[in-house]
Amino acid sequence: MTNATGDVQKKLPFAVKDCALITIATGIKVQNLKEFAVALKDVPLGSIYHHFWGRLLRALFDEPEYNNDFASWASRGLHDKSLAEHLSMVIPTDYKDLEGLRQEMVEVVEQHLDESEYVPWAKADQQFHFLKSQIVIFDTGLRYDHPAELVSQIKKLSTGSIYYHFIDARNRTEERHDDFSSWLNGFDGDEFNELTRNLCGMDPYFSSLKEIRLNVSNIFQKFLKKGEQ
Amino acid sequence: MKRQSKQSLQNMLAEYEAVTSPNVIHQLEQLAAPLKGAKVLHINSTKEGGGVAEILHKLIPLKQALGIDADWEIINGNQEFYQCTKGFHNALQGMNQSISEKLLRNYEKTNKENAERLNSKLKDADFVFIHDPQPAPLLKLTPKRRGKWIWRFHIDASKPYRNVWKYLREWIIPYDASIFSLPEFAQPLPHPQYIIAPSIDPLSEKNCPLPEHEIDNVFSEFNLDPELPLITQVSRYDRFKDPVGVIEAYKLASKLTPLQLVLAGGGASDDPEGEAVLNEVKQASNGAPNIHVLLLPADANRTINALQRASDIVLQKSIREGFGLTVSEAMWKGKPVIGGDTGGIRLQVIDHYTGFLVRTPEGAALRTRYLLHRRDKLEEMGMRAKRFVRENFLITRHIREYLTLMVGLTSGDDERINVGKS
Known about the structure:
The complex is a heterodimer of chains A (about 230) and B (about 425).
Chain A: E1 14-30, H1 33-42, H2 45-52, H3 69-76, H4 81-88, H5 98-115, E2 128-144, H6 147-150, H7 159-172, H8 179-185, H9 193-200, H10 209-228
Antiparallel strand pairs in A: 1-2
Helix pairs in contact in A: 1-5, 2-5, 3-4, 7-10, 8-9, 9-10
Chain B: H1 6-19, H2 22-32, E1 39-44, H3 51-65, E2 69-74, H4 79-92, H5 101-117, H6 119-124, E3 127-131, E4 148-152, H7 162-172, E5 177-180, E6 193-195, H8 212-221, E7 230-234, H9 243-254, E8 260-265, H10 274-285, E9 291-295, H11 301-310, E10 313-316, H12 325-332, E11 337-340, H13 345-348, E12 355-358, H14 361-373, H15 375-392, H16 395-410, E13 416-419
Helix pairs in contact in B: 1-2, 1-3, 2-16, 4-5, 8-11, 9-10, 9-14, 12-15
């Protein structure tokens, strides 16, 4: 099995990568929902990626109310709770690619505009600034042939590695899930099916990268312990 | 800047590893690998006083420890030069301020002299980071440059006074990239604008742990009452920091809650207005016994550290603020911060979680009274504040972003850059 970047291949060892992300201003900012709808159609796809995923590697308080920046702005900037709720239930992995995700966002916003009696607006200092990011990926040199070798190392992985393999992978791979699952699917037989199911069943949207790391580690540990019994 | 020995640089990395974690340092080493030996030059206008100098004092040796040939130079100028650049500073933060032709010509002449003095370093560097407007013309004055030039802007320029920005923009346009602390500060420019928040150094004298007796000493040293709650604002005497508003907030709060206020500030060598503002502050305090206006020397870092630790609450009631390092400093010491609802303070003070954001002296007074009466909330917010700084505003995060930017700039416009082994 090969993913979009060729990182995870059948029976090849799991290659641990790490990444760092830097934020770049697109120069596009909006004051109200109508401007937002227009800008959403034009911003680079990297901006959609950044506001859904990149936020996890930015300064973010540990209990975010909404799981993407668009929904947060709808709530805090526009004070439009129902729009925030609609936007926060757009799940990126439901769409084939970022363009599909963008189209769905535009649909949600335009429908909301159609149903609104007036155009929601934000105060002068609460504009939405569209950002994008540049991601630098590097190989840590760490390789693991079997889940039993990987399990003790998961807790030691950097948050950048967790981001790359657990979050970024959802945007990067055809399967739209994490790299660990892609790797496990490459093993013959159904030995790791349950482990894969558990990993794919994790909701990463409300957790910090440290919490995700802990959860992934616990899922691996629990599975392997069960196997030993 | 005097270079430290290889051993001392390695020890420094080990110390940061102890405060953060081994994989934080390991990540930095891997990111820095493709930049090994790169000549990186930082230029600003002062070695002492103010947040920029403070960051550079640690950023440079950290880069050196990671194998980068980092160096730091300052631009020299006369009084008129600093008068002009202070005018830029005020205008870029939104003050309607014109700058005379005479001052502008002196600004250009000073930059020309500095460009000649620093010529060999400027043209040989692989990366040149120019901090703030003072040395901005150096790029155009170095025609034989070979490296990437990045303009790093530290102040809140969300609503600059247009005439001054129009003048400065011409110097900034040819840069390869610029860096702003917040997306709100970015300006229309024809090159990539990176967003990097500043940081504090957990190992510096200003932020390292202190023995109890050293913290207690500040009460006797500054004639403070150890029995009274203490609120403190640490910052330069600058109108944008609103020290007079802090005194007003203290006066309102102290009507119902006994407390004392310390305003602690020093001067920066590039700030000619400090003395006038200090006089305004003294006048506003009007000799009140529980208002302590301190003028501290630039190297009083341990004293500031002790004052912040001795405080119950720290204020940073700025009306404009690029970032406000003192906010993260206080939060790192487990103190909730009552900050002005502006600029970079919003990035650090999460309203009702790590402190409170306020717009008026009344707001600051109200939140002060609330926290002093609800000690449980004060402790809870302080703990959250410390955790928030550990995760987001330490120098290790800052240098990671600088390294990412440098790798990014040398790799073109690609959104995804693969480096190292494959």
